[in-house]
Amino acid sequence: MERVAVGLVGLGIVGSGFYSLMKHNGEHFASKMGTSAEITKVAEIDTARAKKQVPKDVLVEDYRRVIEDDAIQVVIELVGGTGVAYDIIRSAIERGKHVITANKALLALRGAELFALAREKQVELKFEAAVGGGIPIIKVVRESLVGNRIGKVMGILNGTSNYILTQMSEKQLPFEQALKEAQGAGFAEADPALDVGGGDAAHKISLLASFAFGGWVDYRQILCEGITMVRPGEIEFAASAGFAVKLIASAMLVDGKPAVTVFPALIPAQHPLSSVRNEVNAVFVECDFLGPALFLGRGAGANATASSVASDLGDLVQALMLHAKRGGYPFDPRRTLELYPDQKMEYRFFFHFITENRPGIWATVTGCLAGNGINIESVHQKWEDRSKPSDLYILVDEAREEQAKKALREVCSASGISSDSRFYRILPL
Asked: What superfamily would CATH give domain 147-298?
C-alpha cells in the first residue's frame, strides 16, 4: 500500500485529538483511501508532555524540521494564533507542501495572501476545521453546491455564545452567571472576549462568504456585535412574542453585493436555528436549485475538530494518489468584494427602552420613532416597582438600519430614558 507522509505541528487539545484519531482509526482510514497517511514527525515545544503520547523518534521540538523534511507532503498546523502559525503555513506552502489548518483567526486576517500563494504554488490550503468544528460546511459550500448559486449562508457559528444564551433563556440567568457556567463546563475560555464579542463568528462567516460569493470578504469590514449586553428580561419578552435570541452570523446577496453581519438577533420560534441549544453549531444555506438546507453538529472540541482535520487529510490523500492538480479555489483571493452597506439593510426591530415612570415618556418614544418613519407594531410595558425604571418593549415594522440607529439616539437623548436602551434586529423565517 502506498503512503503519504504527514507532519503535525502542535500537540495541544486539537492536535492531541487528531493524533489520537489517526492512532485509533489509521487502518480504517487507509482501508477507505487505499493509501495510508502516516504521521512521520510531530513538532511540539512542550516535548516533556508530548512524550507521553508520541514516540521519541517521531517527536521534534522545532517545527522547521517538519517543514524542511522533503519526504513530508502534508503539513497540519494546529498551533493557533496569528504569529508563528503564519510562518508555519507560509513556509510550508513555499516549499510546495499542502497545508491543513483549524486556524480561523489567521485565515480571516491573512487568508487572502495565503490562499493566493497556495494557488501560485499549486498546493492546497484546507481549513474545514476552522469553521463549524465537525460540520463539513466548507466542503458543502466549496464542492457539494458548486452547481448552485448561493443566496444566503447564516448560522450559529460560536458554541460559547450559544451555550450562554441557552442558559440565559432556560434558567433565566444574567449574562455574567451564564458565562461562569460556560467556563466551568469548559465551553468558554478564561478570556472569552473573542467569543462573546462576536469576533470568532465574524472570522468564520467572512471565510464562508468568500467561498460562497467568489471573492475575498474582509472580516474587519463587517457589522459585528456580541452578546455581552443581552438581558434575561429581553430573552423572556422575545419568547413571549414568538422569538428566540441567538447570535447569528449571516452572509447574503443584496443587489448583487454581499451583506455580511454578526449580531444577536430575534429569530422566529419556527426557524430551524431557534431550537439549536448549548454548544452546538448550525449553518443554514439557501441556494437556487437545492433550496434551503440545514447542517448541524458539534462546533468545537478536540474530537469534532479532529474529525474535520481528518476529512481534509482524506481529500488530500486521494488527490495525491490521483496526481491531481491542486491549488484551485472557487474564488479569487486577490479580489476583495465590496460589501453592501449595513446602514441600508432593512429589518424589523425590537426596541427595549428603559424609562422613568412618569407622564410623557410614551409620547417621546412614539414621537421619535414616527419622526424617523418607523411604524409601531406592538407595545408592552413591564415594571414591578413604580419607583424604579420600567421596561418598555416595542416591536416595529421593517425599517432601515440607519433609521433605527437615529431613532434610538434621539430617544436616549430625551429626559427620563436610559442610555442603556437598545434594539435588536428581527430576522425573517
From this structure: Dihydrodipicolinate Reductase; domain 2 (3.30.360.10)
* Catalytic residue ranges: 204
Contact 262, 198 (CB under 8 A): yes
Residue ranges in 155-283 assigned as alpha helix (H) = 159-171, 175-184, 193-196, 199-213, 232-240
Domain range 342-426, its CATH number among 3.40.30.10, 3.30.70.100, 3.30.365.10, 3.30.70.260:
3.30.70.260
For residues 423, 275, 134, 173, the Cα torsion angle rounded to the nearest 10 degrees is 60
Tens-digit pLDDT profile for residues 198-236: 999 999 999 999 999 999 999 999 999 999 999 999 999
Q: For 308-347, what is each residue's pLDDT tens digit?
A: 999 999 999 988 987 765 656 667 888 999 999 999 999 9
Distance CA 373, CA 308 (A): 48
Look at strands 280-287 and 150-156 and give their pairing.
antiparallel
Compute CA 229 distance to the chain's CA centroid, rounded to the nearest angstrom: 19
Which helix H or strand E contains 90, and what residues bound it?
helix 84-94
**Exposed (0-12), middle (13-18) or buried (19+): which is 247, by Cβ within 10 Å?**
buried
Domain boundaries, the chain: 2-133+302-336, 147-298, 342-426
* Grid cell listed for 15: 492536535
CATH topology of domain 2-133+302-336: Rossmann fold (3.40.50)
